[in-house]
Design brief:
Structural class: alpha+beta
Number of domains: 1
Strand order of the largest sheet: 1-2-3-4
Radius of gyration: 12 Å
Strand content: 25-35%
Distance between the termini: 26 Å
Shape: globular
Largest sheet: 4 strands, antiparallel
Number of strands: 6
Number of helices: 2
Order of helices and strands: HEEEEHEE
Amino acid sequence: MKNPEKYYAALRKHNAFVIAEKVNSIGQQFQVLEHPTKGDEAPVIVMFPRHEVAFDSDFFEADDLIAGEDYEPHFVDGKLLHRYELSW
């Protein structure tokens, strides 16, 4: 597993392309990015700028992450969780 802080710094350094940006249900801003070297051949990346962390997702498109509620990304306890995984 990648270190989320180092991954964030590397993505910022390489100016990874931001596909979409949104605020989730608990007020966290998140961005969905294209992989800087693999492009659309790799899953999209979820970044939380305020927390300076980034995570690989299991999705190849941003749509499910930004349009639906179930897969909306959240940064909780140092991990990327989707809304359906939250127990509150």
